[in-house]
Design a protein that fits this description.
The protein is an alpha+beta fold. The chain has 8 helices and 4 strands; from the N terminus they run βαβαββαααααα. A 4-stranded mixed sheet has the order 2-1-3-4, with helices on one face. The model has no long low-confidence stretch (mean pLDDT 96).
Amino acid sequence: MWQLYQFPLCPFSRKVRLLLSEKGIGYELWRENPWEGRDEFLALNPAGRTPVLHDPAKGLTLIDSRAICEYFEETTDKNPMINGTAAGRAEIRRLVALFDENFYGDVTAPLMHERMKKRLVYRASPDSRVLREAMKLAHEHLYYIDHLVDHRPWLGGPMMSLADLAAAAQISVADYLGGLDWSGHEQAASWYAVFKSRPSFRPLLAERMEVIQPPSHYADVNA
C-alpha cells in the first residue's frame, strides 16, 4: 500500500490526500516533520519536503504534489481531476499553480511560519506585522474565488477539478491557523462549505496539530 509522508498542516499533502480519496486509492499516513531533517526521509526526498508517496512493495517513490497528482491522473481513470477540453485542462493547471504558488506564498506559508513553526520549533512569538499582511492578501485571493464562483459552477469550470482540491487544501490550512476573515466573501464561503461536506474532506477537518487549535468554526460544515 502507498505510504504518504506528511504532517497535518501541510497543504500540499492535503491536496494529494483529497485527490487519492476522490479517486478511491488506499494509502497509509506516515507522520513526517520535514524541519527535523531525518536521514531516512532525506533518503526518500533529498529536498526534504512533504508530501512523499512511497510504495515499498513496488519500490516506487513519488515526490512533489503536482507530480503525484499528475501520476494518478495518468494511471487512474476514476474521477478525472484534470478534465474537459485542452483549453479547460490548461485553465485547471493555471489555477492549481495560482493556489500552489501565489496563495501559498502570500498567505499559507507566512501563517505556517508565524503560527506553527515559530511556536513548535523556535519557541518564539509570531510577528503581528507579517500576520496582518498575510490576512490582507488572503482577502484579495478570496475576492478572486468570489469572482470565479460567480461565473462557474466550480473554480476550474463546469466540474470539480484539481483546481478545487488545490484551493481547498491551502484555504483549510489558512483557516485552521485563523488567517481568514470570511466576511464579505459569501460566494467563496458557500463554495468552501460545499467542499467541506465531501467525504474526502472530513478526515482533514478532524485532524489537529499538537498544541495548535483551530477556530471554533473550522470543522463546522455549515460555517
